[in-house]
């Protein structure tokens, strides 16, 4: 995969000082933005150089020249890595960002020091297409709050700030249209395309897959039958948002990855 030489670097949120190790680059999921990583990123920034990117069509990259599926995002991420001149990075991706991270690693294995995937898309055909389409189209705060709850474990107490921030973001011109376009590019009718598991398992970098057993977006049973070389962590009473539902545990796993990679 080559980057798009005509595009600039994706907008980023950066924490932590440069050090001798590769930076940790965070890629968010569908309809989120770089801020979703704040709890994890700020904790890791005490010891690592970290960057969270806004993917095309999201956040500060709403007007990116091209928006679409994870392949589009992967090319934009590749361009961004080139612009920074990073020799190696630790990639951490959630949901659609997990698919994006995997595609970057498959295309540029020599550039990825470790790969950490949280509830990644593309690990099986099943996807809650109705929820994603409704979430993309919603603009009213009450409806958004109801839909957001389905991304978490039923007993998780969703902070009101998340729903308020989401509703405020949907008020920006073009956001709803961009998300609806991206949703359709991710979903093939009622399913999603599947990544090559064996090729991911064969990457030279350590790969960890994190999943909540109560995920209502992409089911955790998609981890069944994965190659043994893929290190899989399943967590009870966790939904589709492990980086928010168990931020401390996710930080620990990423630190393990950076120590190995």
TrEMBL record:
Give start and end of each AB hydrolase-1 domain.
22-245
List the Gene3D superfamilies. alpha/beta hydrolase (3.40.50.1820)
What SUPFAM superfamilies does this protein's entry cite?
A: alpha/beta-Hydrolases (SSF53474)
Stored Pfam families: Abhydrolase_1
* InterPro entries xrefs: AB_hydrolase_1, AB_hydrolase_fold, AB_hydrolase_sf
Q: What is this protein called?
A: Alpha/beta fold hydrolase
Q: Which domain of life is it from?
A: Bacteria
- Where is it found, in Gene Ontology cellular component terms? membrane
One record GO biological process? acylglycerol catabolic process
Keywords, sorted A to Z:
Hydrolase
The species this protein belongs to is Stappia taiwanensis
| Annotated GO MF terms | monoacylglycerol lipase activity
């Amino acid at each position: 995969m080559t980057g798009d030489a005509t595009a600039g670097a994706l907008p980023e949120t950066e924490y932590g000082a440069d050090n001798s190790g590769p930076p940790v680059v965070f890629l968010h999921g569908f309809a989120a933005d770089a801020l979703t990583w704040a709890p994890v990123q700020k904790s890791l920034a005490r010891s690592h150089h970290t960057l969270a990117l806004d993917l095309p069509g999201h956040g500060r990259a709403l007007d990116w020249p091209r928006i679409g599926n994870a392949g589009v995002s992967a090319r934009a991420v590749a361009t961004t890595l080139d612009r920074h001149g990073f020799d190696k990075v630790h990639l951490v991706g959630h949901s659609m960002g997990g698919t994006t991270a995997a595609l970057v690693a498959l295309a540029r294995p020599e550039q990825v020091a470790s790969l950490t995937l949280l509830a990644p898309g593309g690990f099986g055909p099943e996807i809650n297409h109705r929820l994603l389409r409704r979430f993309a189209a919603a603009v009213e705060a009450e409806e958004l709050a109801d839909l957001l709850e389905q991304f978490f474990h039923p007993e998780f107490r969703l902070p009101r700030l998340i729903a308020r921030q989401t509703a405020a973001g949907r008020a920006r011109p073009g956001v709803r249209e961009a998300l609806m376009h991206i949703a359709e590019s991710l979903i093939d009718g009622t399913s999603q395309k599947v990544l090559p598991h064996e090729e991911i398992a064969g990457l030279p970098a350590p790969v960890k897959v994190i999943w909540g057993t109560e995920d209502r977006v992409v089911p955790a049973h998609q981890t069944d039958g994965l190659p043994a070389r893929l290190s899989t962590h399943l967590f009870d009473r966790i939904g589709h948002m492990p980086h928010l539902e168990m931020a401390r545990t996710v930080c620990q796993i990423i630190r393990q990855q950076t120590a190995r990679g």
